[in-house]
Amino acid sequence: MTRKSTGGQTGVASQVRAKTAQPPLFKVLMHNDDYTTMEFVVTMLETVFHKSPAEANRIMLNIHYRGIGVCGYYPYDIAETKVSKVHERAREAGHPLRCSMEES
C-alpha cells in the first residue's frame, strides 16, 4: 500500500492486483486388474509419478485392495501426459494396466 497526500489530509490508496486463476487440477487414478504385476505398478508410480518407494508401495496396495488408487493431482496437460506414459509403457511390457483422470 502507498500513502498519498490529499491536500493536508492523509489517506491510504489501495492497489488492486489482479489474481491469476489457478488451472483446475485433475486426479490421476490407476485401476486394478488381474494381470499386471505389483512390481510393475510400483515401477510406474516411481518413474512416471516420482513417488518414493514407500509411497509407491502404499498406493499399489490401495489399488490392489480397493480396486483403484490416486497417483496424484495435476493440471490437465500434465495429467494427460502421465496417463499416456503409463498406457504406453504398460503396452510395451504386455500389461493391461489402465489409468484414468477426472477433475477434482
UniProtKB/TrEMBL annotation:
PANTHER family: ATP-DEPENDENT CLP PROTEASE ADAPTER PROTEIN CLPS (PTHR33473:SF19), ATP-DEPENDENT CLP PROTEASE ADAPTER PROTEIN CLPS1, CHLOROPLASTIC (PTHR33473). One of its GO terms (biological process) is proteolysis. HAMAP family: ClpS. Pfam families: ClpS. The lineage of its organism: Bacteria, Pseudomonadati, Thermodesulfobacteriota, Desulfuromonadia, Desulfuromonadales. Involved in the modulation of the specificity of the ClpAP-mediated ATP-dependent protein degradation. It comes from the Bacteria. The keyword Hydrolase applies. NCBIfam families: PRK00033.1-5. This is ATP-dependent Clp protease adapter protein ClpS.
